[in-house]
Amino acid sequence: MNTSVLARSGRFRARRVARGSVTEGAARAGLAARGVIYLLVGALALQVAFGDTKEQADRGGALAELSQKPFGAVLLWALGIGLAGMALWRLSEALFGSVGRDGRSARKRLLATVRFGFYVFVAYSVLSFAASRNQSGGGSSDRQSRDATAKVLEMPAGQWLVGAAGIAIVAAGGWIGVRAVLRKYHDKLRLGEMGPRTRRLVDVTGVAGGAARGLVFAVAGVFAVRAAIDYEPDRAKGLDDTLRTFADTPLGPWLLVCVAAGLVLFGVFSFAMARWRRV
């Protein structure tokens, strides 16, 4: 093998390593940023349960809360950049595949594409909030859900579209919750690098946090289906109203406390994923 071929091969390997390092850093930053948001949303939901806050228990409320902390502007920019890193990682999975045996399958790539689009939207909203420093967080999730539902209902076959979206959200919530309970996340973690106590902690946060997250998704989807059936956009609920609904059950605020605690645990689990996930 001549020198030029060796040089080209070396450059190719160097670029691949560099690209992999960038993608891994983006993924871990994104998972950590996701953890921060869930911690804040869960904490706000706990305050709502005990009547200690008027903030929205959603992403907008979390951003408003974060902006009031020391170095709030720096934290907001860091959060937005981390979420942009998450979008970059999901894009790389859509283009090149993810870890695992079927990481390059069409299903996994499609799922990565959907996640990429979602995190582009979330990162954009956080960075826009950081740039403007307004206190609305881009509007409450409840108002956004009602406005979006109203627009879709006005389209031809709008009721079917909203109903299908609601069913998809319910299915996604069930999928998230079941996978968490079955501990499917084990396939993506470097378990060999964890001690027994760490693994138990990860399982507690992963199972309880994932189940709570899935439940919230599923309930929000049910409200979307009801909005479609009744042709009433106001029946659609964002994250804040969905969480507050748990306090209106016969169990009172304690069900909301349990769900909010689960979201906090999912935030902790996201930090564990940032540390031990295989990328």
Number of helices: 9
Largest sheet entry:
none
Radius of gyration: 20 Å
Give the SSE order as H and E letters.
HHHHHHHHH
End-to-end distance, in Å? 33 Å
Please tell me the overall pLDDT. 84
* Strand residues, percent: under 5%
Low-confidence stretches: none
The beta-strand count equals: 0
* Share of helix, binned: over 70%
Structural class: mainly alpha
Shape: globular
Word description of this protein:
With 279 residues, the protein is mainly alpha-helical. 76% of the residues lie in helices and 0% in strands. It has helices at 3-49, 59-67, 72-96, 106-132, 141-153, 158-181, 196-230, 239-246, 253-276. Helix 1 (3-49) crosses helix 2, helix 3 (72-96) runs antiparallel to helix 4 (106-132) and helix 7 (196-230) packs across helix 9. The protein starts with a helix and ends with a helix. The model has no long low-confidence stretch (mean pLDDT 84).
